[in-house]
Design a protein that fits this description.
Blueprint: H1 2-20, E1 24-26, E2 29-31, E3 38-41, E4 45-49, E5 56-60, E6 63-64, H2 69-82, E7 95-98, E8 105-115, E9 118-128, E10 132-139, H3 145-154, E11 156-157
């Protein structure tokens, strides 16, 4: 009897852990949202927000790539950060990290700026293939470093688009 009880508890805990770490797919990306964060989905993006509002992650639907990583990054920064948060802050030259073999590249950079009389920071990841570019924006990632690090470790991009 004790054995069956232990097996049932083990199965329950395994199912609970799987439910908590549910992998989601959006456009050409899979990810696991941070546990306990609010999730809102729109036609063109998913917004993940820490319950206390201190930081957020925005996953944008992919768009056609310009064919240039630098141009894609500049366009995404202008549209996703500068326009949205009414800032002229310019990010440093993005770091370029090759994605998995044959899967494109990831460009990463960020900046600090003022919005609504408060300091904010943004870190933009632009994943691009020869045909598509997709962005993930971390707002105030310094306020939730552990969650953002765990989230970014779950990101996987499709090579097929």
């Amino acid at each position: 009897m004790k054995f069956f009880k232990a097996v049932l508890i083990g199965l329950f805990l395994s199912a609970a852990a799987h439910a908590i770490a549910q992998t989601e797919t959006f456009d050409m990306m899979t990810f696991q949202p941070p546990a306990g964060w609010e999730r809102n989905q729109f036609e063109d993006k998913i917004v993940l927000r820490k319950a206390d509002g201190s930081c957020a992650i925005v996953i944008f639907r992919s768009r056609e790539s310009s064919g240039s990583g630098e141009t894609d990054f500049k366009n995404e920064w202008k549209e996703r950060v500068a326009k949205q948060y009414n800032t002229t802050a310019e990010p440093k030259t993005p770091d370029v990290v090759p994605a998995e073999e044959g899967a494109g590249e990831v460009l990463i950079s960020g900046a600090t700026f003022e919005t609504n009389s408060a300091k904010a920071s943004a870190l933009l990841f632009v994943y691009r293939t020869s045909k598509r570019a997709m962005s993930v924006l971390a707002l105030n990632p310094n306020r939730c470093q552990a969650e953002f690090k765990d989230f970014s470790a779950t990101l996987e991009f499709s090579k097929t688009r």
